[in-house]
Amino acid sequence: MNWELLCKPKREGGLGFRDPKAFNLAPLAKQARRVLTEPNSLLSQVLFGKYCRNNTFLQSKPRSKCSWGWRSLMAGKEVLLKSLFMQVGNGEDINFWDDPWLPNSHNHKVPCDKPLYCPFSRIWEVIDPTSKTWNVRLLDEWLPNNMVNDVKEIYIPQGDVKDEYIWNWERNGFLLTILQNHWLITRGM
């Protein structure tokens, strides 16, 4: 019998075995999210000081002589990246063209390249500062119509709320390992 078939839930014709790889990746992804969202924690500061001197945590890759813990965290980060996106707050931390922030897009990124001479690169640059709404004139000028509609559907908070990372399977801001484990198994990770 095929191991993937054995690991499927019983209601889908499998035997409900737990896939050990997915079972191990779920808590690693949860830890990667913790390192990402709590950069001032002691663990994050130590790891960033050792492995992320020249780039961000999301851009980092395992080095040839890195620790087993860092290599494991990088595996968890790769899982996290498959469904991670940024929730728009004040728009200061989100790169419009490169960061995952568009919920209706395939990989949560803008599905086109930055046009030549485009005057904006950050989300805050396309938000009207007085009304806290999207600058539709600017969006219409530089984006395809279907994408403008997707952007206009995104809620902009009225206060000074920081941008934050969100994972698709979150409830009340907490990453649920059980749901993440299910997500990994159903996607054959």
Automatic annotation (TrEMBL):
Lineage top rank: taxon: Eukaryota
Q: Give the organism, scientific name.
A: Nelumbo nucifera
Question: What name is this protein filed under?
Answer: Uncharacterized protein
